[in-house]
Specification:
The protein is α+β, with helices and mostly antiparallel strands. Helix content is 37%, strand content 14%.
């Protein structure tokens, strides 16, 4: 599948601790999201200690393009199906005019066939898929974890995020992956298009994942732009509508005196008279009676793509055109169908909201487990100290702690230590020169290999594998590297 991506980097709103010793603060990480611009499906990301660069951007795109089965296993996310992470290679990407605007990033993405475009300076609103997704990640994961900054400075007397920090980079990656999966698979509270209603009727929830799969099966890479029919209609019946700041909304004719709009239809025009009425409705809405901006419009009940306003001064017939996300609905329905659809959507909305609550509850249950484990590990580290360290001591040496932590990683990300990395030289059957070493078990038989030679994998921190054991393995690996360096 080829598609456009929206890319952006930002630090998560959370302070982290060392994977080696939870009393050592290392500050925040960096996160790069790769977001599909069509439905804001997120196929991949980067989270680590390295600042945004060509390396971390390539890692983020590589993550978006590759299978996630082993990666999810290493993170301990056994309840997340790997097929829910669709590998996508993007033909183009849109990024802010900041740290991603380098020749190295452009050339790196060009090698995978991805062109990089930039929004103007100080116009991050033009890259809304990435910006909105970052804000959602802040709310869904960062602000739910221990050590969160909530995106602001601590107030006087409030315990600082540094003092509340408990989570490692690994746990940050795990919970970001869990939140993204929830983001991709939770039902959307959206107005279904006519085409989408086929999925609803088939019992398929409208999620970012399902909608992206649906477009892939259709062979479409972008939303089709349907040209509007500009036919002139001279003899039309009247209907009542309301001028608003965003255009004209028609009132439902079947509600009597109850004022209810026909959703999601909205009609706009660039005619000077219409623009002045829109502006007046926006600025003076609270100064007049509720029906002050009501007026009569001409429309074809069997063609919902346009309506007409007749200027009472000179009789000019001014067309207003439908503004709607569902490009097919206006061409396949009449107003009576739209009213029936609104009734069905009111019922479906209740079940969507209920499903969203269940998805959030499942996500937060996983977060609670990680929070309890992190707190337990932290308290265990405190108990191991002869004297409880002061808050000032805990906050000291953050820079050196971070540098030491970074030495254990590759490109700022944790690396899985091979399971046999701690074997002594006596356990190794070196064989013939040039042949790979064979690790022997206690019975003298070769041990099975724990991974592919030459391939590093992300460090696992699943609930079933205590982080402390992994941290010990990393520490031993570092000690061996230091010893080899001294030799």
């Amino acid at each position: 599948m080829r598609q456009r991506a929206a890319v952006d980097s930002t630090p998560p709103d959370i302070q982290l601790v060392s994977v080696l010793h939870r009393l050592d603060r290392i500050g925040p990480a960096y996160r790069i999201l790769v977001v599909d611009a069509m439905y804001r499906y997120i196929p991949g990301f980067y989270l680590g200690l390295d600042a945004p660069s060509s390396k971390t951007v390539k890692l983020a795109f590589l993550h978006a393009m590759t299978d996630k089965a082993e990666w999810l296993k290493f993170l301990g996310l056994d309840d997340v199906p790997p097929e829910d992470w669709i590998p996508i290679r993007f033909s183009s990407a849109l990024a802010d005019n900041t740290d991603l605007r380098t020749a190295e990033v452009h050339s790196a993405l060009a090698t995978i066939g991805t062109g990089l475009l930039h929004v103007p300076v100080a116009r991050s609103d033009m890259n809304s898929p990435a910006e909105v997704s970052h804000h959602q990640m802040h709310r869904m994961v960062d602000h739910n974890m221990l050590g969160t900054t909530y995106g602001r400075r601590s107030e006087r007397g409030e315990e600082s995020a540094d003092d509340r920090a408990r989570h490692t980079v690994i746990e940050g990656i795990r919970e970001t992956a869990r939140a993204i999966h929830t983001h991709n698979t939770m039902p959307l509270d959206v107005e279904p298009t006519l085409e989408m209603r086929k999925l609803v009727e088939a019992g398929i929830p409208l999620t970012r994942l399902n909608l992206t799969r649906w477009r892939i099966n259709q062979g479409k890479v972008a939303l089709n732009v349907l040209d509007e029919d500009e036919c002139r209609i001279k003899l039309l019946p009247r209907t009542q509508g309301v001028f608003t700041g965003r255009g004209v909304k028609l009132l439902r004719p079947d509600k009597g005196k109850k004022r209810e709009f026909i959703e999601p239809h909205r009609y706009i025009s660039t005619h000077p008279l219409m623009l002045s009425k829109f502006r007046q409705a926006k600025n003076e809405r609270g100064k007049h009676a509720i029906d002050f901006f009501d007026d009569d419009f001409l429309h074809d009940p069997f063609k919902t793509t346009e309506i007409f306003y007749r200027n009472p001064v000179d009789g000019e017939l001014i067309p207003l055109y439908l503004k709607i996300r569902d490009r097919e609905l206006p061409y396949e329905t009449v107003y009576d169908d739209v009213l029936e659809v609104m009734q069905d959507d009111a019922v479906n909305r209740y079940f969507v909201l209920e499903a969203q609550d269940q998805a959030r509850s499942k996500m937060e249950a996983g977060q609670e487990i990680t929070k309890r484990e992190a707190e337990a590990e932290y308290q265990a580290a405190l108990a191991a100290e002869e004297k409880p360290p002061s808050k000032a001591k805990l906050r000291a040496n953050k820079s050196s702690n971070r540098d030491r932590e970074a030495e254990l990683y590759q490109y700022g990300m944790p690396v899985l230590t091979p399971p046999d990395a701690d074997a002594s030289d006596d356990d190794l059957d070196w064989g013939d020169p040039g042949e790979p070493a064979v690790i022997l078990a206690d019975d003298g038989m070769p041990k099975p290999s724990g991974g592919k030679p030459g391939h590093d994998a992300p460090l696992s921190s699943s609930p079933s594998a205590p982080t402390s054991l992994l941290a010990q393995s990393l520490a031993k690996r570092r000690n061996r590297e230091v010893a080899c360096g001294s030799d």
